[in-house]
Amino acid sequence: MNRRSLAVRIGRLAQSLPQSWLRPIESPFVRTLVRADPNVIFLLALPRSGSTLTYQALVHALEPHYLSNLGNLLYGLPWLGLKSSQLFCGHHDSNFRSKHGFVEGLCGPAEGLKYWSYWTGVGLTDRHTLARNDGKLAQRVNYFRDAVRATATPRAPMIAGYLGHTLVAKQLREWFPSAVFIRLHRDPLSNALSLLRSRADKYNKWFSVKPKECEDMEDRTVQAQVAAQVYWLNRRLDALAHDDRTINIGYEELANAPNTTMNRIIHDGNACGLSLEMQKTLPSYFTHRVADPDQDKDAAAIFNEIRNLEQVHGPLKRSAQH
What we know:
Elements: H1 6-16, H2 23-33, E1 40-44, H3 51-62, E2 65-66, H4 69-73, H5 78-89, H6 113-120, H7 126-132, H8 137-149, E3 158-160, H9 169-175, E4 180-185, H10 188-201, H11 222-238, E5 246-250, H12 251-256, H13 258-271, H14 297-313
Parallel strand pairs: 1-3, 1-4, 2-3, 4-5
Helix pairs in contact: 10-11, 10-14, 11-14
């Protein structure tokens, strides 16, 4: 199954149908089961930064609540979607494979563009995100918070891995003050080169999240575009540097020592009030690539573009540690 498969097309057709009219069926459960705080972890990461692998590792090791492809079909019914995912996918074993962020199978972790744009008003561009902030957004956010409060627990929080949330990290903290953020770092050069490769392989235009600083770059080289995309999205997340409920991890750290990194996430998450436990171990390592500007012309060009941006606008935080 892939994004063009018949099953996915049928799923997208189901998503296109109105679902809010069914909400009175689930809302009594939400009101009855609501708890004190929404136990939720937001994975905040850039496209092609290892976000899908990290999301899969979290779901596999911790067995939390999460947005599965099944739950994503029920985008308008968050409580029912989470409960259905728990029922059918509660002990999901990941094969750690994906294709441009898509994980196959009903239980595969879903990023959830339609889901999250509906509930948090966040698209893949600043322009789209601002357009979503209509009068009903506050009501939707409140209902979604209650749905999570009625479902997730400190032992099994909801984990979300939507890349668009990178654009609204500060707003997300206002909406979910008790949430734990996991900020995923990746070497900016390797990240940007991976974006470039994805565009060459599958996408002939922009790939994934596009910050407002990149809106007028159509006449620039693709190397300059991906460098700016990585630079400005990282700058958004650098704003979390002093957020005491943010766990910083490196993609290279996770790839080299998955279980050690997961244990640190568990330790730091529990210090924030969660009750996480390692339910299943991870592989001993994940293969990954590190870009070398001395060995690749594209990497060299991107390296120079990132360096120029840092000289003009300031350096990025490259450390995964506080």
